[in-house]
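Lecture 7 notes: from sequence to structure.
We start with the chain below.
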Amino acid sequence: MSTQPPQMHQLLMIEDDARLAQMVSEYLANNGLQVSHAGDARSGLEQLLPGDGLPASDPPELVILDLMLPDMDGLEVCRRIRSLPGPAGQVPVLMLTAKGDPMDRIIGLEIGADDYLPKPFEPRELLARIRAILRRRGSGDSEPASSACMRFGSLEIDRDARTITVAGQLRELTSYQFDLLVTLAERAGRVLTRDQIMEAVRGRELEAFDRSIDVHMGRIRAAIESDPKTPKRILTVRGVGYVFAKQQD
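Predicted structure tokens for the same chain:
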């Protein structure tokens, strides 16, 4: 009896360096990841908006996005992806940034990227980052039904649907920010260091002077707090990290 080969994950790489894109595509294909390449922002966005300006009903599972594109700034591409309705607007974005330029990384995370990787990079690290994002995206399937939803006052976190509502209103977060929130909520009342949070979500140690965790926390607070400047759900413990409050309105 013949068996069907496992279905390959479908990715989109928006990168103007054709040689790099070919190398990455071949490497990822050997590891079960099928890459569609777009050499500029326009053709990349067309794959997410295939016809009549309507978003793709079956978008790629992840976008690898270079910030230095010939026809459009990669940050603007990320903004446009996040503005798309439906599944296309929720596609995880992994940015490729210029080494030594932390501001691009911070801005990218603020506008909705899920992760970043400085150039030049090792293909093995790119593969590890991609697998971590895809694993987080599918993590809801393995959660027991009894713990699928968590409620804290008017805040509801549905792990299976990967949605967040506050007083019945849907709030938008990236897949990475959703997992950060779940990590904190599962440990409500317990103070977590930045290293512990990053290790739990991304599976690697926090890089020295990495501010991305604070950027993400700011985005999460903007989504779930009544007043992000005086948060009551995610509290900062100065010099230590963050704690998710057990008692909430």
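Points to note: Helices lie at 18-29, 41-48, 74-83, 102-110, 123-137, 175-186, 194-202, 212-224. The longest strand covers residues 9-14.
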